[in-house]
Design brief:
GO biological process, one term: third ventricle development
Oligomer: single chain
Main location: cytoplasm
Distance between the termini: 67 Å
Helix content: 55-70%
Subcellular location: Cytoplasm
Order of helices and strands: HHHHH
Largest sheet: none
Pfam family, one: P_C10
Keywords: Cytoplasm
Shape: globular
Number of strands: 0
Number of domains: 1
């Protein structure tokens, strides 16, 4: 069998669903839940600190799962997995849903500032 580093990891849409589900499940493992809670506490809902504390822990949790599917056990492996998932999102609503659930596990909910006339903006049209 060829080593994982000699050929790029590729997954079918069905395999991607399985791996996404396993990654999501890994976040609920007691030891990983504790690690994520500690990272979130350290980040104090600050986006810069989220990148500093939460993202590395989330990346490590994903790496542990995806390395079994031929992805390298580093940040590049996680990025390749994310790109592969993204490529399937438009074709498969289940993958899009699982991907959204995964992102919600480590990204804080984004609150967008109000825009437009409905938000009471005072931008004058010229």
């Amino acid at each position: 069998m060829a080593s994982a580093s000699s050929q790029p990891a590729t997954l079918s849409a069905e395999q991607a669903k399985v791996v996404l589900a396993e990654v999501i499940q890994a976040f609920s493992a007691p030891e990983n839940a504790v690690r994520m809670d500690e990272a979130r506490d350290n980040a104090c809902n600050d986006m810069g600190k989220m990148l500093q504390f939460v993202l590395p822990v989330a990346t490590q949790i994903q790496q542990e799962v995806i390395k079994a599917y031929g992805f390298s056990c580093d940040g590049e492996g996680v990025l390749k997995f994310a790109r592969l998932v993204k490529s399937y999102e438009a074709q498969d609503p289940e993958i899009a849903s699982l991907s959204g659930k995964l992102k919600a596990l480590f990204l804080p909910p984004m609150t967008l500032p109000p825009h437009g006339p409905a938000a009471g903006g005072s931008v004058a049209a010229s």
